[in-house]
Amino acid sequence: MKLESLGISTDPETGLSAAKEYAVKFLEENLKYLPDKKRFQVRIPWNKSLPALCNNYHMACKRLASLLVHLEKHPVKKQLYEEQMRKYVTEGHAEEIESSAVNGDEEIFYIPHSGVLTSRPNSEAKLRVAFDSSATDRTGLSLNDRMMCGPVPDSDIVEILVGFRKSVFALSTDVKDCFLNILLHEADQDNFRFLWTATGGKPQKY
C-alpha cells in the first residue's frame, strides 16, 4: 500500500514561491508538542509587509446581534449552536477572557461566526460553526490577508480518484476536530478572539 495513492503526499518536483517556502519553514520551526496538554502548538506566520489588524469589536458585535436574531427564528439551530459553543469551552478549544485582560487595541481581532446546519434523512441534524476569517477591520484587512499562505496540502480531486484505481485496497478516514486540537501560541491568540452570548445579554469574549 502506498500513501501516495490516497492523495496525501506532496510532489517533490512542485516548486514553491519564496512566500510559501517561508511559511512552510516557519511552521516547521515553530511547531511544538506539549506533553502536558497532549497537543501540538503552532505560531502564525504573519505577513510582516502588512500592518497589524485593528480592533474590530464593534463590527463583531453587530455580526453577533444579527446571528442571534436569526437563531431566535430557528429554535433547533439555536439549540445546536449553543451546544457547539459550550463544547468549545468544555473541551478546551476556547476560554473566556477575563474583563481585566486588556491588551493594545491594535493587536486584537474578533472573528465573526455563523452556523452551517446539515441534515440527512433518518439522521440527526448537525451544526458546524464557521468562522469568517475573511471579515475585514476598518482598514480593509482580514485575518486571511495577514497570514502567510503555504502550499495546499490536498491533491487535485482527479489525481485522488485516479489514485484509487492504482491499488487493490483503498482507505478513507477523517480526523475529528483536527484543527481545533492544535493550540495557538499565546502571542497569537488575541488575533483569534470571538464573541458569544447564549442569553442575549452583553457579549462574552473568548
Could you please describe the fold and organization of this structure?
With 206 residues, this protein is an alpha+beta fold. It has one domain. The protein is 29% helix and 13% strand. The protein has 6 helices and 7 strands; from the N terminus they run αββααββααβαββ. The strands form 3 sheets. The protein has a 3-stranded mixed β-sheet with strand order 1-2-5. Strands 3-4 form a two-stranded antiparallel ribbon. The chain has a two-stranded antiparallel ribbon with strand order 6-7. The protein is globular, with a radius of gyration of 20 Å. It starts with 17 loop residues before the first helix and ends with a strand. 11% of the residues are buried. Mean pLDDT is 84; it is low at 1-11.
Summarize the structure.
The protein has 206 residues and is an alpha+beta fold. It has 6 helices and 7 strands.
Structural class, by secondary structure, is alpha+beta
Strand order of the largest sheet: 1-2-5
- The secondary-structure element order is HEEHHEEHHEHEE
Give the overall form: globular
Fraction of residues in H or I helices: 25-40%
Number of domains: 1
Uncertain residue ranges: 1-11
Number of strands: 7
Taking all Cα atoms into account, the compactness measure Rg is 20 Å
Our estimate of the beta-strand percent is 5-15%
Mean pLDDT: 84
Question: What are the key terms here?
Answer:
3-stranded mixed β-sheet, 206 residues, 6 helices, alpha+beta, two-stranded antiparallel ribbon
Question: SSE layout and pairings?
Answer:
Blueprint: H1 18-29, E1 32-34, E2 39-42, H2 57-72, H3 75-90, E3 113-118, E4 126-131, H4 143-146, H5 157-163, E5 182-184, H6 186-189, E6 195-196, E7 204-205
